[in-house]
Amino acid sequence: MMRTNHLTEYQYLNFVSAVAILYNCRLIDMDFPKKVIELEGAPDDMSACFHELSMLLGKT
Predict the structure, then answer these.
(1) What is the C-alpha separation between 32 and 52, in angstroms, rounded?
(2) Quick one: which of 6, 17, 8, 10 has its CA closest to 52?
(3) In Å, how far from its chain's centre is CA 50?
């Protein structure tokens, strides 16, 4: 499992962007201090993207 405290903000941004692209979502904004990721896309794509990010980042 990948923990976010081992990534720089730049690496974290690239990681989240790559997952979003894989699931046909678009990264709108990231608020690092608040730990908020804003994505948009079709409902099924968004669900898959959020699920994958939560699994990979260990936030389930």
Answers:
(1) 19
(2) 17
(3) 7
Alpha-carbon gap, residue 59 to 28, rounded angstroms: 20
Distance CA 23, CA 56 (A): 14
- The string of pLDDT tens digits covering residues 4-57 is 557 788 888 998 999 999 999 999 999 988 888 999 999 999 999 999 988 887
CA distances to 6, 8, 9, 38, 43 from 46, in Å = 25, 24, 22, 10, 5
Whole-angstrom distance, CA of residue 40 vs CA of residue 50: 11
**SS3 call for 43:** helix
Please identify which residue in the block is written with the tokens 């794509």: 45
Angle 30-34-37 (CA atoms, 0-180°, nearest 5)?
30
